[in-house]
Amino acid sequence: MEDSVITIVAIFLAAMLMFIFPMMTVSDRLDDISQLSVQSETSEFVDRVRKKGSLTKDEYNEYIQTASLGGVTPLDIEIEIQILDENPNIEANNENKTKIGENLYYNIYTSQVEEKLGTDGKIVLKEGDIISVNVKNTNKTLGQILRNVFYKVSEDTYEIAASDSGIILIDGNV
Amino acid sequence: MKLQHFAVIFIIIILPISLLLSSFMQSKIEEVNLQTEYNSRISDATYDGVKAFELNTNKENQELSIQHKEKEVEYAIEIFYKTLANRFSLEGMDSNSLKDFTPVILFNLYDGFFIQSKYKNMENNNYEYGLKPYEQYSCRYVKSNDYDFIINYTLDNYISIYGKVNGEIVQKSGYLIDIRKIDENSRNKIDLGDQINELYYDDVKIEKEILSNYEIKLEENTVLQNENTYESTSALEYYIESYKFTKWVTENLNDIKQKDAIDGNTLEKVDFTINKTIENENIFQINDNNMPEDRDSIFYMHKEAVIRKKIEKALITAIVNYNQFSTSNYEFALPNLKETDWEKIVNKVSMTSFVQGLSIKGRYYNSYATIVSDTNTELINKNDLIVLANDGNYHTLNCKELINKTASDNSFIITAYSKQNLARKKLKIQENDSTYYYYPHITNNTKKNYLNCYNCISNLSEVYELEQIINGKVTDENGNILYDKDSLKKMRKVYFTSLAREKYELRK
Fold first, then answer.
1. ipTM surpassing 0.90, yes or no?
2. What is the pLDDT of residue A99?
3. Helices then strands (H, E): number in chain A?
4. How much is the pTM?
5. Gap between the Cα atoms of B267 and A127, Å rounded
6. Which end of chain A is more exposed for a tag (fewer CB within 10 A), N or C?
7. What is the three-class DSSP state of B431?
8. Cα–Cα distance for residue pair B398/B462, rounded to 1 Å
9. CA-based nearest distance B69→chain A, Å
10. Does B55 touch chain A (CB under 8 A)?
């Protein structure tokens, strides 16, 4: 009797050690790789927009494709473009000469960006505008599912997340 | 005991230990990763701040007042927080919450610096973030009863002196140059107050220049494309005025030493952090060890010590005060700035942001980022000069191809300008909503824009040392002379004339 209990425990431990743990480790590494790839793709995308001063439909679609590893990791991509109202240097009014304009920004968000790209095929930006991109995974990854089976620290929402942003360095309208 | 028992007991002991160890290692790795990640976020945000400052100030044509500069710096800092907040958005932090982690931000300009920190607004008793008044790189010197004056230094060889010198109240400013390099004949003429049309500086003839620029402008509702030619005497004026000023300084402040510097508030001798070895040297006496334009001259070393001391003191005070106002439990302290970063701060227009107190895996983050501004209207560096040549390319002064072609054909090199003067200009016409972009110089024969030289600007390999060209002797690795002062005559003329012109025309 004692033997069979210990055998069951041994089999259970062996199963854990030989299958579950390696699988958890591998899926964790997979998440790390996805994270790295998403982060580098996002940085590259943002940098390209900053240095070119424009965003085209093709570039946007290509970014979504490569960042989500061809759709393996479904991603929720949020783009926010803050457009500087021309001209940042215009003095606001004559009474207050020292004040240099209001530096007012108006924002356009993902849906508006996609709509504009759909109709015009291109968004042209200018020096001083700001672009920021935030990316999160939407579905739970294998790593998250396995981890939740064994321990649940808190309600974890996303595993893969990346963000990048920056000021536009050049007028895209050339 | 059976073998399985050993195995099970072994696993029961080893498993928790290995789990603990791996999670400990993992957290250490994450800590390092997070630290690197934060470093890059902060330097990216600081870069954006500097860029915003450049974008705004470079479009201005007139001199910027202190109030104007203050607004531009405020705007740069606003952009810094905007980018930082974007980068930290996944951690759920916005600009306001991030402000609590930036005890101080330093923005140093040509002749002084701004510090942003938290202060108590006496009007409403609230604690607010804002810029402290502009502080200049100044130092007070007292010697006997006849000398009690203040010198405002700048990032280059321009200084302003005011106070009691030789028993008289004076207020003077100008560039310090090595006046021994100006030919004796011209010196005598300037001393006598004669009008001169040319002079020799370091055997290079400085005279009136004929320059041209290209512009697109709107006049009476028509867009005009013009190429203007004009005469410039800025370079000549620079040497004449600098000679007069330097001569006055050497005659009146000849025996002023670093040890004569006192603190304006405590009236005690200033204890400089660096360059203590030059305590007893005469700062303004011009000799072979002290040529004011050289980076290793006594004047330059003393100036760096003054600027560094001034900034260090302001930063320490701001951070100590911040601890009193801060709501955080973290004790803010000035991190050790790397010597390389200090070098950037005391020599260039730059922005340094300090971020502290963010929690990273049980530890606190404490670091900073220094970003230098390369194209601004505040400072011209000798490395910032770009040469226009007859092949339709931009070159750096030390380009091998440029020197080679100039040696055989003097007319190959045209002239040089600062990077800022060559930047693309924009003309926006509101009425018909069109925008024109143009470069201020076009090539004479093809009327096209200049392009970057592949050998020097695009690819920094085909260059000599700039110092060798300035000194008039270019050698190869074995010490054989490739070009002497005679064959570099035109190059040196362009260098000395252009640098003087650009400095003279700088907005002060």
1. no
2. 45
3. 5, 6
4. 0.84
5. 48
6. N
7. coil
8. 9
9. 10
10. yes
